[in-house]
Write a structure and sequence with these properties.
about 30% strand; alpha+beta; about 425 residues
Length: about 425
């Protein structure tokens, strides 16, 4: 038997001769309608194939030796920049006192003058003071304590700032610098008096270990006294310096880089419900007090969050970021060249109290009593969650799934159209026979 005959017996798609086919008007209408339906459903399959969604995953954070960035922008309208100090410390024992790298202090006019930023050459009292006008053989006295390690001339205190650092190294209060030749030469007391009614805005970013820790903004230079971290509050609490308080506005506070607005708009808010981390809960927080001895505490729970774009594949990026985290500039940590993003979300609870003690009767809680003592200021205590959220861009279906969907659409539509056409044809035929009787 010829090979062609063998395959002919296996043909599942039997054909009819052209003379046996009947074409009807209703069949033409059903055909056009079915083609329109096919085109519409295939377009829907294509749109669904091209759609990108973000799938969140929750895993245990296995990172080791990592660091993270903290970015802040906080205004203090009733305390000058000279009296504010930013300190950072964590449970690993690392301390950063008087943080300056990556941080800017912007002097603000008094509230009666509108509180706008003051354009000056230097925003601190001693930022550019290098004592270059002094005799090369001059060696300033440190008035008791040893010269600081950062002194421009070893063993000497050439500027008022170096004398202040020397005092802080031995935990001595400094005050206004009365009787200190360097401070009198630089008119430290007069310049401090000129800033008495001014405010200050602290903005910028700094890098910390990714462990439990805290950072705080408090008055006066900080130093360690035994096992205690204390601040020199003499100038802050001096009545002649005006009524300083820690009324403040947190314009912005975030951990790690911010998700770009372009990315949010490109994917769309409806498909990215996870992007609530784009909104930081402490942004635009206002706190007001008339009490100089007042303490604000914010307790934050930080959750690591990763964003991986479409087509991203792990190539040891995590380990390379851990090794080179200190080599990148502030603001670039966590931004991958492949479009990935390593950032953090956080939740927050807050507490405030007067350092004079007493109850919370003004807040409606007479039964709540506060302890006496402490340091006035704004304190942020952060804890690191052991979990990590991964947000990964993915397509809703693969190309194979798209082809399967197209075949299902074409086959299903034509099958249903054939059934409809057959029903219409049979119905018309029977009605015609009834009329012929």
């Amino acid at each position: 038997m010829p090979a062609k005959s063998r395959f002919t017996r296996l043909d599942a798609f039997t054909k009819t001769v052209e003379d046996a086919r009947i074409r009807t008007t209703s069949g033409g209408i059903v055909t056009i309608a079915s083609l329109l339906v096919v085109f519409y459903l295939v377009w829907g399959e294509w749109t669904d194939f091209r759609r990108v969604v973000v799938h969140p995953e929750l895993i245990v954070d296995k990172g080791r030796g990592q660091r993270m960035e903290i970015h802040l922008n906080i205004s203090f309208p009733r305390i000058p920049c000279e009296l504010l100090t930013l300190d950072v410390m964590d449970v690993s024992g690392e301390q950063q006192t008087g943080v300056k790298h990556g941080i800017q202090k912007v002097q603000l006019a008094s509230q009666s003058q509108g509180g706008q930023p003051i354009e000056v050459r230097a925003l601190d009292l001693h930022g550019d003071e290098q004592a270059t006008h002094l005799d090369p053989s001059y060696c300033g006295e440190c008035y008791g304590p040893p010269a600081p390690a950062t002194a421009t001339k070893p063993g000497c205190c050439q500027t008022c700032e170096e004398v202040r650092e020397a005092y802080a190294s031995v935990s001595w209060a400094f005050g206004k610098g009365e009787g200190v030749a360097q401070c009198e030469r630089e008119h430290y007391s007069e310049r401090l008096e000129a800033q008495r009614d001014q405010g200050c805005r602290i903005e910028g970013g700094f890098r910390v270990n990714k462990v439990v820790g805290n950072f705080h903004i408090a008055p006066g230079r900080s130093f360690s006294n035994g096992m205690m971290h204390v601040h020199d509050l003499n100038n802050y609490l001096d009545p002649s310096q005006g009524a300083h308080t820690f009324t403040h506005t947190i314009h912005h506070l975030r951990f790690g880089p911010q998700l770009s607005d372009d990315l949010t708009k490109r994917i769309g808010e409806k498909t990215m419900g996870w992007t609530n981390h784009h909104l930081n809960p402490l942004d635009e927080t206002n706190q007001f007090t008339d009490d100089a001895a007042f303490n604000y505490m914010y307790f934050l729970k930080v959750v690591s969050t990763s964003y991986y774009p479409l087509g991203w594949r792990s190539k040891g990026v995590q380990s390379s970021q851990e090794d080179s985290s200190d080599l990148v500039s502030i603001g670039q940590h966590g931004l991958g060249q492949d479009g990935s993003l390593e950032t953090h979300q956080y939740s927050v609870t807050s507490h405030k109290r007067s350092l004079k003690g007493g109850s919370d009767s003004q807040e409606g809680h007479k039964e709540r009593l506060h302890a006496v003592g402490g340091i006035p200021g704004v304190f942020f205590s952060y804890d690191i969650s052991p979990m990590k959220v991964i947000n990964r861009e993915e397509r809703t279906k693969s190309f194979t799934g798209f082809l399967t969907g197209v075949c299902a659409v074409v086959g299903g539509t034509l099958t249903v159209a054939a059934a409809i056409d057959r029903g219409v044809y049979e119905g018309a035929t029977r009605i015609k026979k009834l009329h012929q009787r």
